[in-house]
Design a protein that fits this description.
The chain has helices at 9-12, 33-40, 54-66, 99-108, 125-134, 168-173, 175-180, 183-206, 211-225; strands spanning 24-27, 47-51, 73-77, 91-97, 116-121, 137-147, 150-159. The chain is an alpha/beta fold. Strands 3-2-1-4-5-7-6 form a seven-stranded mixed sheet, sandwiched between helices. Strand 6 and strand 7 form a beta hairpin. Helix 4 packs parallel to helix 5 (125-134) and helix 8 (183-206) packs antiparallel against helix 9 (211-225). The protein is elongated, with a radius of gyration of 19 Å. The termini are far apart. The relative contact order is 0.11.
Length: 226
């Protein structure tokens, strides 16, 4: 049996969105464990491992050699997805960055219609969803994973020209997540509701009310009541 590299629960959350025959580029790859895993498990015949820094690229090459897949993993040092967006790659994985940075990476490239992206924004999920829905990306699916004592949102989207309008709570939590209402999601919403309440109380004490945040808090309460 082929030994597979270790991948975290957070990275494992990308697997359901990757289909046999996909050519995947892992952006910000670090150890290249995900591309190696995809090749060794037979999902991908080849994959790309990319990072802006040389250190992760060195580790990626070392690991590709260790698992004997150097001929199937193309390691490249690059800033974002430029140079790959118009190549054979049909699916990009961008995990572990802020939502605004992910949006900037996507915005810098000319992405072909039909290209799909699997995204894990560590912060500013609402900013990323706003960018996606105003820039012709349709959000196809969403999920949530709990790992290392943190909640992580995963967004699966396709560039197809569709533009949607989302409410503040849909931008924050994800319209599909709200519809699914998984037990883990409800836990996450309760935690976020408590954080919003504390922030609201602090703003009231300081006399600095923010209408947008109050709307989000109201919508969050409605999610928990429904």
């Amino acid at each position: 049996m082929t030994k597979l590299p270790p991948i975290s629960d957070r990275l494992r959350a990308a697997l359901p969105f990757i289909e046999k025959g996909d050519i995947v580029a892992d952006i910000g790859t670090d150890h290249a464990y995900l591309p190696i895993y995809l090749v060794l498990s037979g999902v991908c015949k080849r994959a790309h491992a990319c990072d802006i820094n040389e250190g992760p690229c060195i580790r990626a090459r070392e690991n590709a050699a260790k698992y004997n897949v150097s001929d199937k993993i193309e390691v490249s040092r690059r800033d974002g997805i430029e140079g790959l967006a118009d190549s054979e790659v049909n699916k990009f994985v961008i995990f572990g960055m802020g939502g605004e940075l992910i949006a900037a990476i996507l915005d810098r490239a000319s992405i072909a219609t039909g290209t799909r992206v699997i995204l894990n924004p560590m912060t500013k999920q609402e900013k990323l969803r706003a960018y996606l829905t105003y820039s012709g990306f349709e959000i196809l699916d969403e999920t949530l994973v709990y790992s290392d004592s943190k909640y992580y949102q995963i967004i699966y989207a396709e560039k197809n020209g569709r533009c949607d309008r989302l409410t503040p709570s849909e931008l924050k939590f994800g319209k599909i997540n709200i519809e699914k209402r998984s037990p883990l999601f409800i836990e996450y919403v309760k935690k976020t509701r408590d954080e919003l309440l504390r922030a609201q109380n602090m703003r009231k004490a300081a006399g600095a009310l923010k209408e947008d945040d109050d709307i989000l808090l109201y919508e969050t309460e409605q999610i928990l009541k429904s």
